[in-house]
Each structure stands twice: as structure tokens, then as C-alpha cells.
Design brief:
Blueprint: E1 8-9, H1 28-42, H2 50-65, E2 71-90, E3 94-96, E4 99-100, E5 107-115, E6 133-137, H3 143-152, E7 157-161, E8 180-183, H4 185-195, E9 201-220, E10 229-234, H5 244-264, E11 270-275, H6 283-290, H7 294-299, E12 302-307, E13 316-319, H8 321-330, E14 339-340, H9 351-356, E15 361-365, H10 384-401
Parallel strand pairs: 5-6, 6-7, 7-8, 10-11, 10-12, 12-15, 13-14
Antiparallel strand pairs: 1-2, 2-3, 2-9, 4-8, 5-9, 9-11, 13-15
Helix pairs in contact: 1-5, 1-10, 5-10, 8-10
């Protein structure tokens, strides 16, 4: 997909002066104000919505106030919307709240529910599960592997329950052969309890429709236009909630990083990008990378992605191994001790589009959020101190990328 209409250029006032030029200038309280503006004042920012457009304007205005000349670049986003329902018909009527796995097949089925562990081939009965709906626990295997194994065993649909508290939204790597949905751990345990008492009949339905919307990337380039290092964060959210941690927190850290860079005079070679339409398939970052010329791609030394940085127990670094290891090794200098790891199965973020294009990238991330993709993802749960730390890690990564032997 490509950016289509003519970009809108936002006027830029004189930058606000500030002393120094180090990560100590990062303010978690300043960053938190952006979380409130995005998650409370604007609220849910689904791709292509008026609220997403309002958020783009807000981000551009903030960047302009720091002295940048941001550009809002629209692009057309084509995507599928999946809707699902799941009901227990017997021994008692229960309406559950499933979420369709992205790229699931459409369909409707009624059948007996059968539990099959985590969905390995050996977890299914030797005789198979023909005409039955498979109930599987999340974990170990990818969602696509689970669904493929269930289909091979004869299942007509798959229900995956979370392996930790709360619900989740998962992605399949390709369209599945049978419908597949996810439910919360609590609902999964409820179904397992009923199965312990006898057979269960369920009805599952998944519908998908193709939609098109205009989303936007907000891009601030240095005066010479040359992007050598890039900090990015997606600003859209899911429809279910206001997206405070996912990902107003990342945008807040990005804006505070931008402010510090401008105030300290360290913004040369740094581009700042707020991506639209991440939640429906990383479409903003996909469009940005696709629009890079060969020279622009060669000039870009690396990308720093900020996603879900305001909640949780542990800093995680994910992405290009060498860059992630370098940030990890130097993080003690800003009083932090992150862990180099990988994204949980079924999740992704904008840095992967850069890595796929041969550009080193690191995701700065805190996954442990029980309110993920829900109406409870509110500003009150975001911690300003974590926003400050995210900004410090982003500045650290930018400094490492600016070194002669950068990855």
C-alpha cells in the first residue's frame, strides 16, 4: 500500500530552549500528559476513524511546538474485520465473548466441544475429533500450528483460551482452514469445568468483511531530510478501549524523546514517525518502509520502536539481536536492566517491517498488561516513571546507532 493524497505540512514555531542534552531531561510527567490527551480526551483511535485523524493532528502539533516540521502523510488501508460469537447450547445456555483470530476462516458450526491440550498432534484423540470443536490452551505452539493440527484431526472450529488472566487478540500467519477464536483464561477454565461434568454442545460463528479506510503517518524529518536513525510508535488503538498503554504510552515516550532531542540540539539525522493502522496489520510502518527509496533505505542505520511501555514488571528488548544486545549492555548506565527476548506467539509490532527490509530495529516493550486490548486500558494505569525510562532507553539506542560501528 502506498501513501496517496498530498501531505499536509504543519507550521513549526521556534523550539523551546532547555539546558543540557542528556537523558536526564526526559520527564515522565510531561509524557503522561500526552497519554491523557490521547486516551482520555480523544479515546479509542481505530484505523481510519475521525479520532485517529484527531490524534495525528495532536501529534503533529506537539512535534511542531518543539521546532520540527512534521508532515501528515495519508495512505489507504485495506483490511479485514472479523466478528465472532460463541455460545454454549447445552447443558446450559451461556454466551461467551470470543475474539476472532486475525486471518481466521469464516464459517458457522455447531458441535460437541472437546479439550485437546495445547493442540499438538498427540493431544488429540487417536480417532480424531470429526465434527467437534477443539478447545485448546494458548502457548508453546503458534496459533497457526494449533489450528492446522485441529483441522487435520477433523475439528470444525477451534477455541483457544488464554494461558494467563484476561482475554487476548491473536494473529494467524495465514488464512486458516477452519474458524478460530480466542477467549479469556477465565472462560476457558469455565468450559473445562463444564466438560468435567459431561458433554458440551457449542455454536460458533465467524464473519469477516473487507474494509477500506484512510489512515495517516506523522513524520518529522531533520532539516536536511535525511533519516539516519528513526524512532517510531503507533498511535492507533483497538476499538475495544482507549488504548492508553497500547499505545498512547509509546507515542508519549516518542514525543518526550523528540522534545529532549530538540532542546539539546541532538536531533540531526533523527526521524520521528507515529504510525497509523498498526492494529489492523502494521499498515503504517509497511507503507513507510515501502515508500523509502534505495538511497533512503541505505542511509537508515536503525529503528527504535516504542510499544506498550507504560505498564508491566520488566523491560524487554526485541528485534535485531546485535542492536538489542548493545542496548541491553549499556542500559545499566541509565539505571535499567532490560531482558533481551522475543515477542509472545501471535503478536507483532512495527519494527518487524524494518527488519524485513534489512534495517536493524529494536522494540522497547513491556508486555505484562492484564488490560491489553480491553476497555480497561486506561490512562490511570499508566506509570509516568516508566514513560521516562522508555525515553531514556530510546535515547540510549539512538546514541548507539550513531556510533561508527553501529549494527
Amino acid at each position: 500500500m502506498v501513501a496517496s493524497p498530498t501531505p499536509t505540512v504543519i507550521a513549526s514555531p521556534t523550539p523551546t530552549a532547555a539546558p543540557g542534552g542528556s537523558a536526564s531531561l526526559v520527564s515522565g510527567e510531561r509524557a503522561y500528559e500526552h497519554v491523557v490527551a490521547l486516551a482520555e480526551d480523544i479515546s479509542s483511535r481505530t484505523a481510519g476513524s475521525d479520532a485517529e485523524a484527531d490524534a495525528a493532528d495532536y501529534i503533529a502539533d506537539q512535534l511542531a511546538s518543539y521546532g520540527y516540521q512534521p508532515v501528515v502523510e495519508p495512505f489507504e488501508a485495506e483490511y479485514y474485520v472479523e466478528q465472532a460469537s460463541l455460545e454454549v447450547l447445552s447443558p446450559e445456555a451461556i454466551a461467551l465473548e470470543p475474539r476472532a483470530l486475525r486471518r481466521t476462516a469464516q464459517g458457522e458450526t455447531t458441535g460437541e466441544l472437546v479439550a485437546a491440550g495445547i493442540g499438538r498432534p498427540e493431544d488429540f484423540p487417536p480417532a480424531g475429533v470429526a465434527t467437534q470443536v477443539a478447545l485448546l490452551e494458548r502457548g508453546e505452539l503458534t496459533f497457526s500450528e494449533k489450528v492446522a493440527n485441529a483441522a487435520a484431526a477433523g475439528a470444525t472450529a477451534v477455541v483457544v483460551y488464554n494461558n494467563e488472566a484476561g482475554s487476548f487478540r491473536g494473529d494467524l500467519s495465514a488464512e486458516s482452514a477452519i474458524p478460530a477464536v480466542g477467549i479469556s483464561r477465565e472462560d476457558g477454565q469455565r468450559l473445562l469445568g463444564l466438560l468435567g461434568q459431561g458433554p458440551i454442545t457449542v455454536h460458533l460463528s465467524v464473519e469477516a468483511s473487507q474494509r477500506q479506510a484512510t489512515s495517516r503517518n506523522v513524520i518529522a524529518r531533520p532539516p536536511d531530510g535525511r533519516c539516519e536513525r528513526l524512532v517510531g510508535a503507533h498511535y492507533d488503538s483497538v476499538e475495544a478501549g482507549p488504548g492508553a498503554n497500547d499505545n498512547a504510552s509509546g507515542v508519549a515516550a516518542l514525543l518526550e524523546t523528540a522534545r529532549v532531542l530538540a532542546a539539546s540540539g541532538d536531533s540531526e539525522g533523527v526521524c520521528l514517525v507515529a504510525f497509523g493502522a498498526e492494529e489492523i496489520g502494521l499498515l503504517g510502518s509497511q507503507t513507510f518502509v515501502a515508500n523509502l527509496s534505495d538511497d533512503e533505505r541505505a542511509a537508515l542505520q536503525g529503528m527504535v520502536n516504542l510499544d506498550m511501555v507504560g505498564v508491566g514488571d520488566e523491560w524487554q528488548l526485541i528485534g535485531s539481536p546485535e542492536l538489542a544486545q548493545e542496548v541491553d549492555a549499556e542500559a545499566a548506565g541509565v539505571g535499567l536492566d532490560p531482558v533481551v527476548t522475543e515477542l509472545p506467539s501471535g503478536l507483532s509490532s512495527d519494527h518487524v517491517k524494518f527488519i524485513a527490509a534489512g534495517i536493524p530495529a529494536v522494540l522497547i516493550y513491556r508486555f505484562d498488561d492484564p488490560r491489553y486490548h480491553s476497555a480497561e486500558d486506561q490512562a490511570q494505569f499508566v506509570e509516568p516513571q516508566l514513560l521516562e525510562q522508555a525515553g531514556e532507553l530510546a535515547l540510549l539506542a539512538l546514541r548507539l546507532l550513531d556510533e561508527p560501528d553501529a549494527p
